[in-house]
Each structure stands twice: as structure tokens, then as C-alpha cells.
Design a protein that fits this description.
By secondary structure, this protein is an alpha/beta fold. The chain is 40% helix and 26% strand. Strands 3-2-4-5-1-6 form a 6-stranded parallel sheet, with helices on both faces. A 6-stranded mixed sheet has the order 7-8-9-10-11-12, sandwiched between helices. The longest helix has 17 residues. The radius of gyration is 20 Å and the shape is elongated. The protein starts with 14 loop residues before the first strand and ends with a strand. InterPro entries: MEDS_domain (IPR025847), STAS_dom_sf (IPR036513). Pfam families: MEDS. This is MEDS domain-containing protein.
Length: 291
């Protein structure tokens, strides 16, 4: 597998792997994958484990996808891994692969151009789970792609939490998939990560945002101002925000034309710093305190 690709660049028939550390970032990338499938007239099937089906429907809705409507018309199906995919108490690769084959045929019978499947692999780290079946399943899917069995009609995104899986399994996952998916990263170190956010479009930061990272913050802000009509700055996982970085965000919002707005979501402490730095004086800046 080569260099990581943007999730929007996954082509029909791809077998992609998403490894993540931030659950919000995972949901953001998943939303892009789901939206692309809906827009392209495919059926989208989400097997979820860490997030309940109803909660995942809500999370997709918060990211601008009319998920409830898509579920209602049958184009989007969101279901938990245990009941709909693994089948028995301990899933087998053969059973899971057969489920995908059945769903692929059903999508074709219902007139869809293809089937997009996202699979939360967290089930494999549960106690008493036959985790080796995960490896067999991934090989079965990869072999199906290589042999042309799916004929380009099945597109899969397999999601692995770096905090749950051991390095050996993660290395296997990287090797068996044809593509790796990752967000565009502006900066990452043990204390701070700044990356692109795709839905809603903007940037996302997590950790401690201080003047030592002002250059990277400026780069990220400049790009979202250039690309996004109404930039979203997600600071929900920022533990510390200093005055210099708050001023940079406020200045970026001030530079927007009158018809555009910047939306910042953050916790109480960053919101206080932004307020003290003058956020309330910028008409095009909206600060929302979120959990």
C-alpha cells in the first residue's frame, strides 16, 4: 500500500483502510465516505460497533448528511456488527464474506450502482472473540478484489482504532488493503494535532494550541479561508488555547468578506480566551460552546 490518500479519492471498487486515534476524526472521514456513496447512487452499508446505530445516524446528520432520509428510503443502512454481520457469538470470515456477497446482490437487485461498506473493526478486540477471523476476512476481501469477483461494485472502508489494536495487526491491515485513508495533517506531535476537517469543511485541532505552533495554525487557517465558504474551526478537543492563537483565529475571521462567516466549536476555556481576545467584536465569527 502506498502513501495515504484523501477519503474523497477512494474510487468505486476500492479496498481502503482507515486507522485513527481521534473518534471525531474517524466520524468526519466516515461521513465523507458515506456522502460520496449516496451522491453516486450506491447503497451504503455501515457496520458499527463503537457507536450505536441511532447515534451514528445522528452523527452523520450533524455532518450535513440527510442520513435519516437515506435510511428511510433504503439507500443507507446502519446496523451493529454483532447482530447483522458477525451472526453468531463469534463471527467467522466465511460468514462475514457471505453477508457482503448477499448485500452486494441485494443492492444490484434494488437498482443501485454498487455497494459501499464501512466496517468498524472494534468487535475484534472484544474478549472471547476469534480475532484471527478478522485477518482471514480481510484476506478474503482482498482476494475478491484481486480475482475480480466483486467486479468493481463493492467499495470497502475498514476502520481500525490505533488505541485498541496491537502494532502487528495494524501492520497487517496496512499491508492487505489497497489504499490507506488519512486526513490532511498540518501539524502533529505528542501535544498537538492540526488537520483538515471535511464535514463541515474547515480545520480540526486537538491538544495544546500555543504560540509555538502559530505558524502551523496560520497555514491551516489560510487554507480553510481559501477553500471553504464558511470555515469551521473545531477546537472541541483543545485543552489549552493561548492569546496568540486566539488572536490568529479572530484575525482570520475578520478577513472574511461580509457574506461569509467562520464557525468555531470549542469547550468553555477556549471560548473564554476567544471572548477575552475580542471574538465578540467580529461580526463574521460565531463561537459555540460544545461538550
Amino acid at each position: 500500500m502506498g502513501q495515504p490518500t484523501q477519503v474523497g479519492d477512494i474510487q468505486a471498487g476500492g479496498h481502503a483502510c482507515l486507522t485513527f486515534s481521534d473518534p471525531d476524526e474517524r466520524l468526519d472521514l466516515l461521513a465523507v465516505f458515506v456522502a460520496a456513496g449516496l451522491d453516486e447512487g450506491q447503497r451504503v452499508l455501515c457496520f458499527t460497533d463503537a457507536v450505536a446505530p441511532d447515534a451514528l445516524t445522528d452523527e452523520l446528520g450533524q455532518r450535513g448528511i440527510e442520513a435519516a432520509d437515506a435510511v428511510g428510503r433504503g439507500q443507507l443502512r446502519i446496523t451493529d456488527c454483532a447482530s447483522a454481520w458477525l451472526g453468531a457469538d463469534i463471527g467467522t470470515a466465511q460468514h462475514m464474506s457471505e453477508v457482503l456477497r448477499v448485500q452486494l446482490r441485494a443492492a444490484a437487485d434494488d437498482g443501485y450502482a454498487g455497494l459501499r461498506v464501512s466496517a468498524d473493526m472494534s468487535w475484534a478486540v472484544r474478549p472471547h472473540t476469534a480475532a484471527h477471523e478478522l485477518l482471514r476476512f480481510e484476506r478474503d476481501v482482498a482476494d475478491g478484489y484481486r480475482d475480480g469477483v466483486t467486479d468493481g461494485r463493492l467499495t470497502t472502508l475498514c476502520e481500525y482504532d490505533r488505541g485498541s489494536f496491537d502494532p502487528v495487526t495494524l501492520a497487517f491491515a496496512a499491508d492487505v488493503h489497497s489504499q490507506a485513508v488519512a486526513a490532511q495533517v498540518y501539524h502533529e506531535d505528542p501535544l498537538l494535532r492540526i488537520c483538515r476537517q471535511y464535514r463541515p469543511a474547515g480545520i480540526r485541532a486537538a491538544g495544546e494550541l500555543d504560540s509555538g505552533h502559530l505558524e502551523q495554525l496560520h497555514t491551516a487557517l489560510a487554507e480553510t479561508l481559501r477553500l471553504d465558504e464558511h470555515p469551521h474551526v473545531n477546537l472541541r478537543r483543545v485543552r489549552y488555547l493561548d492569546a496568540a492563537c486566539a488572536a490568529a483565529i479572530i484575525q482570520a475571521a475578520h478577513e472574511l468578506p461580509a457574506a461569509r462567516t467562520m464557525h468555531v466549536s470549542c469547550g468553555t476555556l477556549p471560548a473564554t480566551v476567544l471572548r477575552l481576545a475580542g471574538a465578540v467584536d467580529v461580526s463574521g465569527l460565531r463561537v459555540r460552546v460544545t461538550p
